[in-house]
User: Fold this.
Amino acid sequence: MAAAVVASLLLPAAASATKGIDLRVVNTAGKTLAEQRQYTGTVQIKTDRHANCFGQGTGGSGDRVEVTGATALGAVRDGLAWDQDLRPLSVTDAFLDDGFGLGVCGIGGFESQGSAFWYLKGDHVGSQVSGSQLKVRRGEDVLWYLSPGFPPPPELRLKAPASARPNVPYQVTVYSYADNGTRVAAAGATVTGASQPTGSAGHTMVTSTSAGTDTLKATRGQDIPSNRVKVCVNQDSSKCPEAHGLRIFGSARGDRISGTRAGTR
Assistant:
């Protein structure tokens, strides 16, 4: 089992209502604000009087709102304790009485302006409800992306082995997910360290010239950049983990935390 950084107490005997989800937050420029397994459950979120991205008079009340259960927005709220790139979180409760949940105007200081908006996906499918209403399951992939407009671009996903040897090419694969979750091979994507873009099957080859750790990422035009994947490079494969590790961040409650299992990310 690959080692993971755990920022919480491990309470094996306690039944926890929190769930670990794989959270990724990316701004329009492609900067990754968060990429971690985040444990989350019921949270209190303070609304922002200046959160007017939905129009004049739609700012928050300034009150704290309880969001029950494990949700996509709750994961961001719980991540604030560990990841300063997520601060501040700007949300409005102007639409609660209309049944629309909390509206997200800003994450990490990156605000919805003009036609831009914070796009949300759960397991690669665009959410039809607000982040405070999107209930998440254990291990679910949650992506927040500051889309420059509508429709939002496809999401890229990168797969690579956990380990490789110096000067020995290894294959990586890039997929593209549409808003409805349809997955296709992503041709023409650029991957860190690859000499050629991906082909029609989404594959390309990466060669590392020295021992160490490669951090790979895929991009393609205006598409949402992929997850980052670390590859351990060593002539002696026994010195590399058998699976990709994760940064694991806990919540303020008692979390029951599981590590990663063997396989490619």
About this structure: The two ends are 13 Å apart (CA to CA). The chain has two domains: 5-153, 155-239. Residues 5-153 form a domain with the Ferric Hydroxamate Uptake Protein; Chain A, domain 1 fold (CATH 2.170.130.30). Residues 1-15 have pLDDT under 50 and may be disordered.
